[in-house]
């Protein structure tokens, strides 16, 4: 301060002693110096302030400790989420061996549940990762549903087609023995149960009990009842144990999976398809202008790559919209790198479905978009009742580019069972190999 006052004092003396021309040039020179100093101060201030601001934001977004805002939002997800089930009712199973008849399906639902996520057994690790389980709790919302949980639904019997798949290539005596058991238990190819039994409650199945006792190789269902989500509501361990990066050292790694069930590869998949990568979908790194994002889902035991598709506005906030394209369920026809999702021991399948049999305890399960949206037309043509629409069935995710905060989620996936003929199993002879829809789920978040 003292030096500045001296400088001003000298300047004033010079101005008094200087000629008019001298005063003019001195003033211009001094003004130029102050302008340059001002510009430098603004630049340096912006850089320092911006650096501090980004550092603060990144720290709060990260999971570096249990006190950041990111951690508190991640530990118990505050954003309302909903899971809607649509079940496909098979209306004409009695015509299954009629060559001129197609299986017909009518979609029932939605049966809507509020979904709440809670992280359990959280452990911070020295390599900037955190290990945890996710407990998911579902609560039925009758006021947001169409129909009752006591509605009866008829569908392809999952236990029958699973047993058929397992014994298809076994010795003829094994198949005859299985056929005898199916007939003795009076098992049917189609089964009718209530919505609640098919989803969360589950139901006892005589064939399921029997195969558990027989310990058939390849059939490892660890449940006493069958239901698509049986023994899952409120379970801490069902989805497996996750290890993700906290973003403490690099915000671009925030939420990215390091391992799932202590592995970084899926043992039964090949090449790049086997790699466990992407986020679990609830916490994201800032995507910026990334053209793709990758989502790992334990329900598929694999990843989905979504592609940038413009902007999406939520309450005036602009986000990057990422959509599911044909690539996700391609079989290598359009995208050669996707061929590694097709098991080597099965015949080539048309594009549009992903085999998740080994992820679903050996059941002949295949996942697709809802109503076979973007799939090869042959899947829809083999049955009736499918009406795919981009407006209704497109899968997409919206992320705020600077923070990675999910602004909107619309995830719609369909689980299908493969019905195929098996010699020496009377229920499975005289039928066509067909991909049969069982149900679809619509995961939806409220606009934040």
Automatic annotation (TrEMBL):
InterPro entries: CD36/SCARB1/SNMP1, CD36_fam. It is found in: Cell membrane. Keywords: Cell membrane, Disulfide bond, Glycoprotein, Membrane, Receptor, Transmembrane, Transmembrane helix. It is a multi-pass membrane protein. The keyword RNA-binding does not apply. It holds the Pfam family CD36. The chain crosses the membrane at residues 30-53. The keyword Cell cycle does not apply. Belongs to the CD36 family. This is Protein croquemort. The lineage of its organism: Eukaryota, Metazoa, Ecdysozoa, Arthropoda, Hexapoda.
């Amino acid at each position: 301060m003292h030096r500045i006052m001296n400088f001003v004092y000298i300047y004033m003396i010079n101005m008094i002693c200087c000629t008019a021309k001298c005063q003019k040039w001195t003033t211009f020179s001094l003004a130029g110096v102050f302008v340059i100093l001002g510009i430098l101060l603004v630049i340096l201030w912006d850089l320092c302030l911006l650096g501090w601001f980004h550092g603060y934001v990144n720290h709060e977004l990260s999971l570096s400790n249990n006190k950041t805002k990111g951690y508190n939002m991640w530990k118990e997800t505050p954003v309302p989420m909903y899971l809607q089930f649509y079940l496909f009712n098979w209306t004409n199973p009695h015509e299954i061996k009629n060559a001129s008849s197609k299986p017909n399906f009518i979609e029932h639902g939605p049966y809507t549940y509020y979904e709440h996520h809670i992280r359990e057994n959280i452990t911070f690790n020295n390599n900037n990762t955190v290990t945890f389980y996710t407990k998911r709790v579902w609560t039925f919302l009758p006021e947001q549903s169409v129909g009752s949980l006591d509605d009866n639904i008829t569908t392809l019997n999952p236990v029958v087609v699973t047993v058929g798949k397992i014994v298809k290539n076994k010795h003829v005596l094994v198949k005859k023995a299985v056929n005898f058991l199916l007939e003795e238990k009076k098992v049917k190819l189609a089964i009718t149960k209530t919505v609640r039994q098919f989803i969360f409650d589950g139901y006892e199945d005589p064939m399921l009990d029997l195969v558990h006792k027989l310990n058939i190789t390849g059939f490892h269902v660890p449940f006493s009842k069958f239901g698509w989500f049986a023994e899952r509501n409120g379970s801490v361990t069902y989805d497996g144990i996750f290890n993700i990066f906290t973003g403490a050292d690099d915000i671009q790694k925030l939420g990215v999976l390091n391992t799932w069930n202590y592995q970084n590869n899926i043992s039964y998949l090949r090449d790049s398809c086997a790699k466990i990568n992407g986020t679990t979908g609830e916490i994201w790194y800032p995507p910026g202008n990334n053209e793709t994002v990758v989502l790992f889902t334990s329900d598929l035991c694999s990843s989905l790559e979504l592609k940038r598709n413009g902007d999406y506005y939520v309450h005036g906030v602009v986000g990057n919209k990422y959509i599911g394209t044909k690539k996700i369920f391609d079989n290598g026809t359009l995208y050669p790198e996707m061929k590694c999702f097709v098991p080597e021991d099965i015949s080539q399948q048309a594009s549009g479905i992903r085999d998740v049999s080994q992820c679903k305890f050996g059941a002949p399960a295949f996942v697709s978009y809802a109503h076979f949206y973007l799939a090869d037309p042959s899947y829809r043509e083999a049955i009736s009742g499918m009406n795919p629409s981009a407006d209704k069935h497109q899968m997409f995710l919206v992320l705020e580019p600077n923070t990675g905060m999910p602004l909107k989620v619309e995830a719609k996936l369909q689980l299908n069972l493969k019905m195929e003929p098996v010699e020496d199993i009377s229920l499975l002879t005289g039928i066509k190999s067909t991909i049969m829809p069982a149900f679809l789920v619509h995961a939806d978040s409220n606009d934040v």
